[in-house]
Amino acid sequence: MTRPPDGSDSSGERPPLAALLEAVLMVAERPVGVAELATGLGASAREIERLLPELAEDYVRQGRGFRLRHVGAGWRYYTADECAPWVESFVLAGQSARLSQASLETLAVVAYQQPVSRGRIAAVRGVSADGTIRTLTARRLVEEVGHDRETGAILYGTTDYFLERMGLRGLDELPPLAPLLPGLDDLDDIVIP
User: Fold this and answer.
1) How far apart are alpha carbons 49 and 5 in whole angstroms?
2) Which end of the chain is more exposed for a tag (fewer CB within 10 A), N or C?
3) What is the pTM of this model?
């Protein structure tokens, strides 16, 4: 019985190196280099260099819906070009639904006050923003843009996709808020019935 590189117990023999490469590359969030793969899998760089192009050719020959490509500093899986329109349609199908009122309010707070933390969004809206931030992030309308220096809280801002969907060239094209807010005279009517 062989052990994984971390020394933990394995329930069987080591899988073939090609299978290990596939498994690791399947979960990688960025291209992975030969040296990193070799170190992580306890294999020689020469063997990794031989196997990766073979795997890539096998996927093309078998007509798979994905490709293994060498890009920049490493290897990564991509959707096969001929499958891309269907994948895009599938991924975007759930995104055509309208945003909830809570999501729209949260998006407005982020757009006008960015960079902004979840805590600040919650303070403005009066309710937790966790779920709506997850929704807006999944729809690529907001993204993490840094951390607050004092608190370490994650800060959010709008994305280029947000600008594209809103038909804006930049945030400076957002309509001013002042005309949309009640004036001091109107506040008396709202607060004192």
Assistant:
1) 20
2) C
3) 0.47
